[in-house]
Amino acid sequence: MNGVGKGLTVAWINDYLDLYNYAKAIGDEAWQADILETLRSHDVSIRREEQAAVREQLWRQFDALNLRLLELYARLREADSGESAEELQGQIWALKVERIRLTNRICSSRRESGAKTARRNVRP
């Protein structure tokens, strides 16, 4: 694990210890037990959170790429010369290829994590 990952793990554990102390202070024993179970399986929980963050970032990239494609299609409709239209079509093709790569990465990350939902509601 690299330094950043180790730092995030320590921060995650500290956050859950703070929650545990709060649950103890308010006398919520069921919540304390739930937090302890989460802490015991912290590797799985942290990995799940990291995978969700990666998927969310991939979806943001996908959305940005689609917006760029829409812009290029609008410019293509307005293009006068064959040369600029050809250049725009080349850019569109490259973005479509990138979109396929992103789609494959999103699908792959879903399989790895066992995610059941197709997509989160992510706004740019």
What would CATH call the architecture of the largest domain?
Up-down Bundle
CATH class descriptor name of the largest domain: Mainly Alpha
Number of helices: 4
Q: Quote the distance from N terminus to C terminus.
A: 30 Å
> How many β-strands, per DSSP?
0
Taking all Cα atoms into account, the compactness measure Rg is: 22 Å
Mean pLDDT: 86
How much strand content do the residues show?
under 5%
Task: Predict the CATH topology of the largest domain.
Answer: Methane Monooxygenase Hydroxylase, Chain G, domain 1
Structural class: mainly alpha
How would you sum up the major sheet?
Answer: none
Helical percentage: over 70%
Number of domains: 2
Morphology: rod-shaped
Low-confidence stretches: none
The run of helices and strands is: HHHH
